[in-house]
Amino acid sequence: GNSVTQMEGPVTLSEEAFLTINCTYTATGYPSLFWYVQYPGEGLQLLLKATKADDKGSNKGFEATYRKETTSFHLEKGSVQVSDSAVYFCALSEPYNFNKFYFGSGTKLNVKP
Amino acid sequence: SAVISQKPSRDICQRGTSLTIQCQVDSQVTMMFWYRQQPGQSLTLIATANQGSEATYESGFVIDKFPISRPNLTFSTLTVSNMSPEDSSIYLCSVAINTEAFFGQGTRLTVV
Questions:
Q1: Which chain B residue shows the shortest CA-CA distance from A37?
Q2: Are A99 and B100 in contact (CB < 8 Å)?
Q3: What pLDDT digit, counting tens, does each position of B9-59 carry?
Q4: Nearest partner of A53 among A35, A36, A72, judged by Cα
Q5: Taking the CB of residue B75, how many other CB atoms lie within 10 A of it?
Q6: Any chain A CB within 8 A of the CB of B48?
Q7: Paired strand residues for A67
Q8: Cα–Cα dist B77/B67, whole Å
Q9: Cβ contact (<8 Å) for B42 and A104?
Q10: DSSP state of B85
Q11: Which string of b and e fits B33-58 if b means at least 16 CB within 10 Å?
Q12: Residues of A with Cβ-Cβ distance to B101 under 8 angstroms
């Protein structure tokens, strides 16, 4: 079946540090991959996405590359800010049913000034 | 894109009672989705609500516990029935448009 595994949190970093949040997936075929972010007290919102192998999604300084050979979609940012403190969810949508999503367990990021 | 309004945003309920959560979308969509996010956990899909037909429930969720209505293409309700403290969660309404999922703000339910 389809599933998403992401690294346990919380992750605590100092401002301007480099961020990596690991995400791997299991899927039949070629899913689309997503990172969603949930800021404190808010709903989930799309951060970035990639729909085919080797695609790189990017937004607000965050990047993730769809790696089919390693079934991974790791989230990276070169220099985090306090305002990036949130919970990050890796997700996939089924290859032939783009309406159905599977989410990882979420990784809480705390950025300290 | 889609703007989703959910209400109530939060509630504290007595065990054994029921709560109905409403979800309104600003555009017509074929399918609406209901998720549960338990404290510190990820999102779990409860069911898919199709307009004009019965909702489709995921494994572990049943209609008697989570009845869903879908009277038109912009609105759905989820009822959490005969609540127990284990039902304390955030409940989220979602739609998918152009391969992207959009979410409401969620309903934070506490059962005491």
A1: B103
A2: no
A3: 999 999 999 999 999 999 999 889 999 998 878 889 999 998 888 899 999
A4: A72
A5: 16
A6: yes
A7: A72
A8: 8
A9: yes
A10: G
A11: bbbbbeeeebbbbbbbbebeeebebe
A12: 34, 36, 44, 46, 91, 93, 101
User: Hey, what are B54's tokens?
Assistant: 């019965």
Q: In angstroms, rounded to a whole number, what is the distance separating the alpha carbons of residues A20 and A7?
A: 10
Q: Cβ separation of B101 and A89 shorter than 8 Å?
A: no
Q: Which residues of B touch A100 (CB under 8 A)?
A: 45, 48
A88-104: per-residue pLDDT in tens? Answer: 999 998 766 667 888 99
End-to-end CA distance of chain A: 41
Q: What contacts A25, CB < 8 A, 6 or more positions away?
A: A2, A3, A4, A5, A31, A33, A71, A72, A73, A90, A92
Residues from chain A that touch B42, judged by Cβ atoms under 8 A, are 89, 103-106
